[in-house]
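ok so for the tutorial part 2 we go from a plain amino acid sequence to predicted structure tokens. step 1 is just haveing the sequence, like this:
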Amino acid sequence: MFLNRMWIACALLSVLAACGTDEANQAHTVSQLDAQPITYMDIEAAKLAGPSCNYAAGKSMGAVVMAMDDAAVMKLGGALKRFTLDPQCDKLEKGTGSRYVAPGYVLDLAIKSETRSEAAGKLGFEGSVKLSDGKGRVLYSTAGDVQCGG
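step 2 — the prediction. this is what the tokens look like for a chain of 150 residues:
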């Protein structure tokens, strides 16, 4: 039962735990922070639900950012950090935005609309994540797959 629930939640939210990192994923990532993949347990504990776009590093299946219409989360140092939607940002897929903020942080997200694909009711894109501090210094940056659903 638990495994069935886990599979359904992952499929609905398009978030899977990382299967590991490889050199291709690392080549696309700049990090001064310990950004980690968001797991099913994180999603359940934080009661995250609804339409979202999930940003992975490279071709990894593990999302490092989960963006919703009003907030986004990123797992830093083992804990989920919540960001609030910047109401003046551009809108992306599934009601998500291109910018989310938290005290001392700016999270910029991008989707390349020309890379859109659709499979099993999910939208796929190439996209990017950039986390900066309040002074504009890039703390984390990666490009990779984006899946939107829900």
